[in-house]
Amino acid sequence: MIKIAICDDDSEIAKNLSTQVQKYFAVWRKEVSIEVFYTASQLMAVHNERVFDFYLLDILLGRNCNGVALAKQIRNLCPSAEIVFITGFDDFRNEAFDIHAFHYLIKPIKFQMICKLFNDYFKRLNACEKPFIIVQQDRKRIKVIQEDIIYVSNKENMAIYHTTHGEVREYKSLKNVLKKLDSRFAQPNSKCIVNLCRMRGMEKNICSMQNGMTFNITRAYGSDFKKKFIDLGMED
Question: For residue 37, with 0-12 CB atoms within 10 Å meaning exposed, 13-18 middle and 19 or more buried, which class applies?
């Protein structure tokens, strides 16, 4: 299900936009959850509790706030979110693109525009999307591509994802981390999870990684770990 937030200080425009989005998802039989907000503060007030995949933001949200400023806050908290600006003017176009907005729509918004917007979104999603997980680090939801994960370690109830781009952390047990990862991941011991596709090899009770790290394969985990390694076709 895709979660969408609409923020526009004109209630009629906001409700009409919500109706058009709902119509699109009904036609294509896709699940959607839509919430409508009339001020930036209303939207940010719930952001600690829940975040959205897609934001439709009016550029002008009253005298003291604009959609670009709101988008910068959202981008800081949720870097992977898609943001679309809606306005009757072109004045903020350059600022909008500076924060990598997915699209920029000019009022009045017609149903055909909504169709093109989400058709483009789903086409790009289907063409480019690699398997990923969402990691809740502090107040940020971070999208982590699974193939970029080298291994996951744990420290004081915190899972530490060691990736090709650095470390990402969240409070989660390795047992629950493993549940959201795909079949390329396995535990050689109780202290870590490794990406089998990033292993250099396995000798006796030691697995070596392409980055030079080595991990012990303990008796409790050895049988399942070695089976996954063979099933994935990693054994020579």
Answer: buried
Alpha carbon distance 15, 82 (integer Å): 20
Domains and CATH numbers, the chain: 2-128 (3.40.50.2300), 139-231 (2.40.50.1020)
Q: What is the pLDDT of residues 176-225, one digit of tens each?
A: 999 999 989 999 999 999 999 999 999 989 999 999 999 999 999 999 99
Cα four-point dihedral sign 4, 51, 141, 193: negative
pLDDT value at position 134?
94
**Exposure of 21 in the CB half-sphere (CA atoms within 13 A):** 23
Q: What is the per-residue pLDDT across 126-172, written as a single tens digit (0 to 9) for each?
A: 766 678 999 999 989 999 999 999 999 999 999 999 999 999 999 99
Query: Quick check: 162 and 151 in contact, CB under 8 A?
Result: yes
Phi, psi of 110 (to 5 degrees): -105, 160
Record the tokens describing residue 101, joined without a space: 């907005």
- Which one-letter DSSP state was computed for residue 147? G
Number of Cβ within 10 Å of residue 30's Cβ equals: 12
Angle between helices 111-128 and 11-27 (to 10 degrees): 50
pLDDT at 175 over 90: yes
Which amino acid, one-letter code, is at 175? Answer: K
